[in-house]
Amino acid sequence: MSVSFKERVGKFWDAFTEKESEVRKMLDDKVETDTLIKFVDDILSVAFHKAFFELGINDQGKYELILTPEGDRAKLFQLEYWLKQAPAVLSEKWNFYSSKPAKAKGDFSISMYDTTLSADSVSLYYEIDEKHQKVNLQVECLPLMKLEENKKYSLFFIYLDQLIGEAYTMEYIGTIDFRVSGKGLKKVAATDLRKLMDDTIEAKNWFRIENICERCAGYEMVPSKAKDWQLREDIYIAYSSCFPVLNAFYNKSTELFGNFYADGVVFGFLFYENINVPKDRMVPFRTEIEDQILKEAKAANVADSIGGATGFYFSYMDFIVYDIDAFLAIAKEVLVKYKFKDVGFSNFIFGDTPTFFRD
């Protein structure tokens, strides 16, 4: 990894600003789709090893570039960062998105696998899962029932993304069941599902979609009793806003991180010994340190927090990092002041050799 994601994103927006008039002309002239996609993909490749995107013009005549995380919450962090760096000068003519937005009207149809879905062909039943802040759905749709399982779910999720928006699908939709029982469930028209969800979010004070990457959940673990335990195996209580990263770590898988690393993005964690910190001070003390690091990291646009954890020997602070060299310089400057015996940084790869900070 020779170029940071921060630098790649900056170069992308410079390139797009220079070429966006050509993109608009191609959209206006309705040039061949493959030609348009290739042209924009070449620009996006400045920032992304691989990007999934859509282009178009909305009902108000504004041009749109929509990137999609393909349901991957880890990818969403990266795309949110990309979106926040968009130059204000482009906003007059362009809308940019880090996930697929809902269609303005719900009375649309989509066709795939020789099957057409529309609001008229889909009946929805729902229940509210208040504990997990989710809406569980049962779906009644004869055209879907004729498809094999994978195609059935694939087509419905594509429809759902257009109906309520990809971010809503990712964050607020719980279980989806095509075996309708109707017991204890209420019915909602497909065209009213987004309103139902907005009303529920408001009434029950659920986490707002505008701050989607700040949504966290707590978890507990049983610390390892092995003598040769690895970093993070001492954790007993923690929280995270990006569980795919944790799942990859504890499953000892590196597959998730390949494309991120190619883009100059690093998922990693800072750690420091906490054996001399009073138990009732462990979380406040970690927060105090994290706030100092985040203040500098956010000002420099080099990292975002994705969680934290407390172990019986170490405390941990988890990050997605867009410029690893700049971030490590900031973190080291803050942490060395505390004179910890063991303190450093590790990639989110199980058993990875950590970088220790020294005075």
Describe the structure concisely for a colleague.
With 359 residues, the chain is an alpha+beta fold. The chain is built from eleven helices and 16 strands.
Explained architecture:
Helix content is 36%, strand content 24%. The chain has eleven helices and 16 strands. The longest helix is centred in the first third of the chain and has 24 residues, at 5-28. The protein has three domains: 5-97, no CATH class; 109-210, no CATH class; 216-356, Alpha-Beta Plaits (2-Layer Sandwich). The model has no long low-confidence stretch (mean pLDDT 93). The chain is an alpha+beta fold. It has helices spanning 5-28, 33-44, 73-84, 142-145, 149-164, 166-172, 193-203, 243-250, 257-262, 282-299, 324-335, and strands at residues 53-57, 63-67, 94-97, 109-112, 115-118, 123-129, 134-140, 173-177, 186-189, 217-220, 235-240, 266-273, 303-311, 314-321, 343-347, 355-356. The strands form four sheets. A seven-stranded antiparallel sheet has the order 10-11-13-14-12-15-16, sandwiched between helices. Strands 8-7-6-9 form a four-stranded mixed sheet. A three-stranded mixed sheet has the order 1-2-3, covered by helices on one side. The chain starts with a helix and ends with a strand.
Query: What CATH architecture label of the largest domain applies?
Result: 2-Layer Sandwich
Question: CATH fold name of the largest domain, please?
Answer: Alpha-Beta Plaits
Beta-strand segment tally: 16
Biggest sheet strand line-up? 10-11-13-14-12-15-16
Helical segment count = 11
Helicity, as a percent range: 25-40%
What value does the average pLDDT take?
93
Q: What sequence of helices (H) and strands (E) makes up the elements?
A: HHEEHEEEEEHHHEEHEEHHEHEEHEE
- Count of all domains: 3
Structural class: alpha+beta
- From the N-terminal CA to the C-terminal CA, the straight-line distance is 26 Å
Describe the largest sheet: 7 strands, antiparallel
The parts where pLDDT drops under 50 for at least 5 residues are none
* CATH class designation of the largest domain: Alpha Beta
Radius of gyration: 23 Å
Question: What would you call the quaternary organization?
Answer: single chain
Q: How would you describe the shape?
A: globular
